[in-house]
Amino acid sequence: MSGVLYLIPNALGDGDADALATVLPASVIARTATLGYFVGENAKSTRAFLKRVGVARPIQEIEIRELNVNTPAGEVDKLLAPILAGADGGLVSEAGCPAVADPGALLVRRAHQRGVKVVPLVGPSSILLALMASGLDGQRFAFHGYLPVDAGERAKTLRELEQRSRKGRETQIFIETPYRNKALLDTLVANCAPSTLITVAVDLTLDSERVATLAASDWKKQAGAFDMHKRPAIFLLLAN
């Protein structure tokens, strides 16, 4: 009989075990601490997460394998092998919920195909936290991940997303590499209608957390006062 694949959320920022306990339920930490096999994007950061959890066995006895954008699709079965052999295992995200905007979705899909029980555990999601805090429409929304890097393509994509939002009354959600946050906000302000609502949420769940929702015209006046440089951020827009 195969084991269980647990989907284990991670904190959205660095910190010690006490900080981890503020965003992960005790039951999630306890379940994670019992496991001896994990799959994560990066073995080093996964190991650091497990040290914060306080795993039940010596860290050197825990098996950690990597699954990231460079992992060939044909390797996924090998990652699932210990679970198929009967061991319970955990899929850990670098931040937030695994398999959501995360390469771990490949492992979850394969687990279902092989009849492995998949159990999602409770933890922080920057997408849902930002939507909750935005005041924008939470009935209809779409997450797009990263937008094009090319300036022209990015502006075109944002105009298309604004039109989609206006037509369907649908909140559009996307992210950016932290050092390009300000450039993305500038592009939003330059290409969106003055009345379009834009939310910027940075450092969610951290002491430095800040969330603001303003019309594009107001962001044009106040963007310089909002420190988002090299801080994890998520952006939302809703066209009126």
TrEMBL record:
<dbReference type="GO" id="GO:0008168">
    <property type="term" value="F:methyltransferase activity"/>
</dbReference>
<keyword id="KW-0808">Transferase</keyword>
<dbReference type="InterPro" id="IPR014776">
    <property type="entry name" value="4pyrrole_Mease_sub2"/>
</dbReference>
<dbReference type="InterPro" id="IPR035996">
    <property type="entry name" value="4pyrrol_Methylase_sf"/>
</dbReference>
<dbReference type="InterPro" id="IPR008189">
    <property type="entry name" value="rRNA_ssu_MeTfrase_I"/>
</dbReference>
<dbReference type="InterPro" id="IPR014777">
    <property type="entry name" value="4pyrrole_Mease_sub1"/>
</dbReference>
<dbReference type="GO" id="GO:0032259">
    <property type="term" value="P:methylation"/>
</dbReference>
<protein>
    <submittedName>
        <fullName>SAM-dependent methyltransferase</fullName>
    </submittedName>
</protein>
<keyword id="KW-0489">Methyltransferase</keyword>
